[in-house]
Design a protein that fits this description.
Layout: H1 2-17, E1 44-46, H2 47-81, E2 82-87, H3 91-98, H4 114-143, H5 149-164, E3 175-177, H6 178-183, H7 185-233, E4 238-243, H8 256-264, H9 277-287
Antiparallel strand pairs: 1-3, 2-4
Helix pairs in contact: 1-4, 1-7, 2-4, 2-5, 2-8, 4-7, 5-7, 7-8, 7-9
């Protein structure tokens, strides 16, 4: 009903007045100069601080743009599944009106010209997009816990412990060697990228199979109410709704999950960043220096 009120109120006012993708790269570089072992400064790095920095970087430099891009793509797909056409009223309606006694004939309803109809349809589709994007965060939160900041921090701690626990005579279990981070940067980066890609795939699959079919159905029901309202409020035309079920996505050449992964793997780094893992890990190691 909120969707119906939103469309009917705002739009009426306007009309009357006028498969698998490449791993996600989450480790952009800070500079392009590779560091040799002789150049490395040995110092201890706090595991907790380092993991928090990496998780924060992932959250704000990658995760937010991936989520917003996902919402927009899904909303666009919803619009592709919805078609609204305008037809003349059925002849039987005119016949029925002509048979009514003069005393029961109602005042003529206002009509919409072609421009008003296009404005109305445009606003309806804009509302579909806003409605869809507004409902997706709840679904994402349900399936996206593995890519939350706490989960990313835990995974980073795990791979640091696995690869750098006893490296370079570092005995403190809460610290790792900066040399290990630099020398094993490629391996650490690859594991983090695979972790992100795997869980993004799981999220996109869950949305595609378990969330979006029902969401499209509910959106369709709301939209039917909107069109029924306008069909009763205006004469001279009738809005007809045609919706393609979401299950048909499975027959498309490029499934939704693959398209979303392609969007997520598009380069997000600035021109100054060249995705050099050694520089990336060395930079954040210096910030987490104990």
């Amino acid at each position: 009903m909120l969707f119906l009120a939103f469309i009917a109120g705002i739009t009426l006012l306007s009309v009357v007045s006028d498969t698998w993708a490449a791993p996600i790269t989450v480790t952009p570089s800070i500079s392009s100069h590779p560091i040799t072992r002789a150049e490395m400064e040995r110092f201890s790095v706090q595991i907790d601080s380092f993991a928090q920095l990496i998780a924060t970087h992932w959250q704000f430099d990658h995760f937010e743009s991936i989520i917003s891009g996902t919402y927009k793509e899904i909303a666009n797909q919803f619009q592709n599944h919805v078609q609204i056409t305008v037809q003349s009223p059925a002849r039987q309606h005119a016949f029925q009106n002509s048979q009514k006694p003069a005393s029961t004939i109602q005042p003529a309803l206002p009509s919409l010209d072609i421009m008003d109809l296009e404005v109305l349809k445009s606003q309806i589709f804009a509302a579909i997009q806003a409605h869809t994007e507004g409902n997706l965060p709840v679904a994402w939160d349900k399936f996206g816990d593995k890519l939350g900041r706490q989960a990313i921090e835990g995974f980073v701690k795990q791979i640091l412990t696995n690869h750098c626990k006893d490296y370079d005579n570092e005995k403190d279990l809460q610290k790792v060697s900066s040399v290990c981070l630099a020398e094993k940067a490629d391996q650490l980066s690859a594991e983090l990228d695979r972790y992100v890609s795997r869980h993004l795939t799981d999220i996109f699959d869950a949305l595609d199979k378990h969330v979006l079919p029902d969401m499209l159905m509910h959106t369709t029901n709301d939209l039917k109410n909107v069109l029924d309202y306008f069909n009763s409020a205006f004469t001279g035309q009738e809005f007809v709704l045609d919706v393609t079920p979401w299950q048909s996505q499975q027959q498309e050449q490029v499934p939704l999950t693959d398209r979303l992964l392609q969007l997520a793997t598009q380069p997000q780094a600035t021109a100054q960043e060249d995705h050099h893992p050694t520089d990336f890990f060395s930079h954040y190691a210096s910030l987490a220096r104990s």
